[in-house]
Each structure stands twice: as C-alpha cells, then as structure tokens.
Design a protein that fits this description.
The structure is a homodimer. The first copy, chain A, has three domains: about 5-85, Winged helix-like DNA-binding domain superfamily/Winged helix DNA-binding domain (Arc Repressor Mutant, subunit A), CATH 1.10.10.10; about 90-160 and about 265-300, D-Maltodextrin-Binding Protein, domain 2 (3-Layer(aba) Sandwich); about 165-265, D-Maltodextrin-Binding Protein, domain 2 (3-Layer(aba) Sandwich), CATH 3.40.190.10. With about 300 residues, chain A is an alpha/beta fold. The mean pLDDT of chain A is about 85. In chain A, the strands form four sheets. In chain A, strands 4-3-5-15-6 form a five-stranded mixed β-sheet, covered by helices on one side. The first copy, chain A, has a five-stranded mixed β-sheet with strand order 11-8-12-7-13. Chain A has helices spanning about 5-15, 20-25, 30-45, 60-85, 100-115, 135, 170-175, 225-230, 240-250, 280-290, 300, and strands spanning about 50, 55-60, 90-100, 120-125, 140-145, 155-160, 165, 190, 200-205, 210-215, 215-220, 235-240, 255, 260-265, 265-275. Chain A contains eleven helices and 15 strands. Chain A is elongated, with a radius of gyration of 30 Å. The termini of chain A are far apart. The structure holds a DNA duplex (30 and 30 nucleotides).
DNA sequence: AATAACTGTTCCGATATCAGCAACAATAAG
DNA sequence: CTTATTGTTGCTGATATCGGAACAGTTATT
C-alpha cells in the first residue's frame, strides 16, 4: 500500500470532482482509484467523502486532509526535483577558492573531469592560499587544507593530507642521513609554512608520543613547488605534503626520511556556507569531489611502502 | 515502486547509521532495505550515500534530501493522525448554538445518536433563535436556517428547508380553500418570522415567476410550534417549514394549500469559524450531521405526494 | 597477524499484490 | 422512460515484493 499513491489518488479525485475523471487523467482504470480511496479511508479510519452513490462530496474531515495532502505532495515533488539533478542538466556558475599547489596539481584534473559530465557549469576559480571570506566575497565553495572547524560553515572532508620528510640523494650523501629527530638540528631545513612553524617540526614516534623538534631553517618559502625544487637541487630537507612530492619519491629523486615517525594529520576540506537551500551545483560538485578523493589518495598509494621503510 | 516506503527506509537508514540496523528496527530483511535504497537513488538519479562497502556516508545531496524527507514524513504522520479519529476516542466539549424548533425536533435526536457513538463528548447546547457571535461567545458551532454566506465563517449545508402553506380542515371548511395567491388577502394568516416578513409572502408559480402576495397578518409569533398549534385550532393559514408540520400534514390534521406554488428555498447550515486546525470534534460532528440529513429530509419524504397535488 | 564478526549486495524461488476488465447497481440527463 | 454515466465489486493474470542464503569486503578482537 503506497501511501503517497493513495494520497495522490485522493487529491486527484478531489480536484477532478469524480473518480472517473481522476482515473482518466491518471490513465488508470477507475476501479483502481476507487480501491485506493477505500484503502485510504480504511487506513485513516475516517470517511473522506460523503458518498451518494453518484455524487462525491468532501466531508470536513476530508477537506482538512485534502489541504494537508496537497501540501505534502507538493513537498515531495519539490524534494525529489531538487534532489534529482536530471543528470547533467546542471547549469550556472560556481565560484571556488582553491589552494595554490593542491589546486593546481590535483583539483585541476578533478575539475576538468567534472566539467566533462556537466559542460554547462562555468567555473570561476581563484587559486590563492590566503584565507578568504566566503560570504563576503561571494564564493560558493572553498577548498582548504587544514584541520579547522568553523561553526557557521559546513566542512566536508575530501582527502587526508599526509606529510613526509625528504631530501635528495645528493644532499644525503653530502650531509648524511638523519637517524633520529635530534639530528635534524645539524641539517639544513627548507621550511614550508602551511604545515609547520618556523622553528619546530612536530613529529610523532612509534608509541604515539609527540616530539617537538627544533630545526634550523635554512630557507623559508610559502610555495610548495619552489621548496620541492630546492630539495631536488640538494639544498636541504623538506617536510611537505605527499601530494606535492609523491612523484619524486616514487622515482627516487627524493628519499623519505625518518620512516618511523608521523606528522600532524591534516586533511583537504570543501567548505561552504550553511544555506537552507544549497544549490544543486555546489552539492553535486562536493559529492563529486568526495567520491573522487575517497579512500587512500592516489598520490599516497605508491608511497605506502616507501615511507614505511 | 512505493515512494513512501522508499523514503521511509532511507530516513531509517540515516537515523540508524546502517542498513542492517534500519532493517532490524523495521523488522524486515536487510536485502529489502538495500533494494529500496537503490530504487530510491535510481528514481532520483542521484547518489544519496557515499558507499565504502562497509561505511555509509551521506552525500550532500542525500543530506538535503534527508532533511526534507524527515519533514515530509512527519507531516504525513501528523495529517493522518489528525484525520483518523481513532474511532470513538473523541473527547472534549462542543458548544453549539441551535435554532429552537428545528433544534428540538430534529437536531435533538441526531445529537443523541452522535453521543452514542462518542460518549466522551460533552455537549453544551444553546437553543436560541437569536443571532449569536460564534467567536465572541465561544461557540464551536452554530446551526442556522437561512441562506446566508458569511465570508469569515464556513457554512456547510445540512438539509433543504421547504416551506408549506397549510390550514386545518375546520378552518378551510369555514373560510373556504384559496385557489390562488390573490385570495389570500381575504384569509387570516398566522405569520412566522423566520421565513416571511409581516406583510407579504413570496410565492413562485409553476413558471418560476415570483409573486409577492399581500396578506393579512392575523396573528404574529416567533415560535413555530405555537403557530402550528394555532393553525391546528383553526385560527388561520400558516406558511411554515415542513419540518414543523410534516406529521400533521401526513395525518391530515393540516391541509397543504396552493400546491402549484413554491416558496423561498432555505437550508439548514452548520456554521463554524475558519480556523487552521479545526478540532476533530467539530469536524466529526459536522460530518455526522451532513450524512444524517443527506438527501431528501425524512420530514419531507412523506409529504412529497401531498404537497404536489 | 589472523581469525571472527559484521556490513552491504546480489540472486532466487515462493508468495502476495495490484492493475485491468467486465458486470452490476444506482443515479442524472435528455 | 430510455440512455449514459458513475462508483463498486469480483475475478484473473502479470508483476512485484519478500525473505533467506551465499558472497565480497571491512573492522574488531584475540
């Protein structure tokens, strides 16, 4: 017994004024409508119509139920329509704030892929690592790498961001390979702002103990790719997100260090305002990103063994 | 495809956090819930859950649909609950204003009958022919005989009220039987306020023409039964609602006059305020009255032939 | 580290349900 | 008074739905 179907039949009968008329408009036999009505009345335990064998008059009970039914059915339709994205019928623009490195390297391909499924969406992308005020600047969505939790915004976790310490083989040959965090003070460190402060790196040993390690900043920069290139050139040791250096590690041009230690777990988030009626574009795009970055990120898959050693 | 059941299954899964849990609480096999979910997603053309084979995470699309679904299901339950009167579980009081004669003669038995079905309803009856202000005096309902249409009130037609002109055989023998409206001026008329003014009676002939007939008021009273008794005593001709005199006409103690003519069509109405949430008591009682007085009123059934002649 | 417990999905056979048709009773219309 | 229409009901075949079991993948526990 489909309660929506019964309800709808009831509403159609009220609007058509007769069972036959309603059945015609619905394209079913009138016996079906009749039975649905009776089923509904039995379910409610109340008479909706005052039947005169030929005439159908709403009872007051029925009139009250009709008004509520109409609203409910409209709500159902609205909910279904708002949810069903009609597969590719998404249109409009999407203004997104992206972090520089992660955005260029990993979100770019994702956006291209999304655009192929929804060609009528226009992206307005702002690659920038500064904090932006979503509402003030009219962003639909921001992608951030952090561990923040803002109450007025919804944050959807997209992917874990792992950090890895590494250096080029040439550097290690020249300066030696550190075997413990304490040795780091004798090395040249290339410092990336996003996941570390300037003076210390926070490591976690195998027992889960946090170790605040003093380092020697040799070069500071806010751009991950610049630091990666510096490390490749043998300038020092970097602590960076794996998504930037995974290819270099995989190919052996950078060597992971201190494999027994872990770093602060960050994550990439999609962040957007809490509006009552979130646009289908934003919902669809975030759903797409969550699905695409689900599980262990592809940039970490090939490192799983190397960083463990 | 039962949309209601699918929606409910979806909500239960969200609330239980898993398909198995939802299936347990719903008392069905988990395969059923799984299939319902897939069906719903297919119907919407959108992914509601982000599945990880073991974990079920709501997509943003799903979260939005969930919020709407919860509200819809609550609305359905509320509508059904408000409509279903739980068969006799009606309680509370019902303050009703009734017309004197009609109330005593015909509504009284109806109310008794209603009370047998709903013993927990307490009636507060005010038999009075004066106009009462429903809202000011706290009436739930008023029964009126009129043809009014007040915008702020809902009026439900209960029964047609026919009028009939009649006199006792003794009177007619003494004064003669009028054959046309014009002769009425030579007769003694007993005037009832409710359906006539003091100086004229409006009749309609067989062609539908309205005839304003001057009469001679011999006795004026606002109480129908008093006038009926006066007519029975042979004091004159009355024009009254059939519901007062139908037994006397049926038994021959009063003779219908001018059978070819009709009178203003009045009706008995149930009148009540237009409140958003009409109490179930009022709805149930009005529904009951409408049904009870449906069709040709029983007091007119036996007169149908007599008044036609 | 390896088993155990649990999750969601899929397939399959028995069962129940539902749509449509046709006949019927009752009423309004011409 | 006949005709057409309305709502209801019984019946039959097609359809869908249910529950159970097997399966694949994941977490928890030992």
């Amino acid at each position: 017994m489909d309660r929506f179907e019964n309800m709808q039949a009831f509403v159609r009968v009220v609007e058509a004024g007769s069972i036959s008329g309603a059945a015609d408009r619905m394209g079913v036999a009138k016996s079906v409508v009749s039975r649905r009505l009776r089923e509904l009345e039995a379910h409610l335990g109340a008479e909706l119509f005052h039947r005169t064998t030929r005439q159908m008059n709403l009872t007051d009970t029925g009139r009250a139920f009709y008004q509520q039914s109409v609203r409910i059915l409209a709500d159902v339709l609205e909910a279904e329509h708002a949810t069903s994205q009609s597969h590719g019928a998404l249109k409009g623009s999407l203004k997104v704030a992206l972090p520089l490195s992660f955005g260029l390297m990993h979100l770019g391909p994702a956006i291209n892929e999304f655009l192929q499924a929804h060609p009528d969406i226009e992206f307005d992308l702002d690659f920038n690592d500064r904090q932006v005020d979503l509402l003030a600047e009219g962003f639909d969505l921001a992608i951030r790498i952090a561990s923040l939790a803002d109450s007025s915004l919804i944050a959807r976790r997209l992917a874990p961001i792992q950090a890895v310490m590494c250096a080029s083989p040439a550097y290690l040959e020249r300066m030696g390979t550190p075997q413990s965090p304490a040795e780091l003070i004798n090395h040249r460190c290339l410092v990336y702002n996003l996941i570390s402060n300037y003076e210390h790196w926070n490591l976690r040993d195998a027992e889960g103990q946090w170790i605040k390690t003093k380092i020697t900043p040799y070069l500071k920069a806010s751009n991950g790719e610049f630091l990666r290139n510096a490390a490749l050139a043998g300038l020092g040791i970097v602590l960076m997100p794996t998504f930037i250096v995974y290819q270099e590690i995989a190919s052996g041009r950078l060597i992971p260090l201190l494999p027994g230690y872990q770093y602060a777990q960050l994550a990439a988030y999609a962040i957007y305002p809490q509006t009552r009626h979130l646009s289908q574009r934003v919902r669809a795009f975030v759903d797409f990103l969550v699905k695409r970055f689900d599980g262990l990120p592809y940039w970490d898959v090939c490192l799983q063994d190397k960083t463990q050693e």
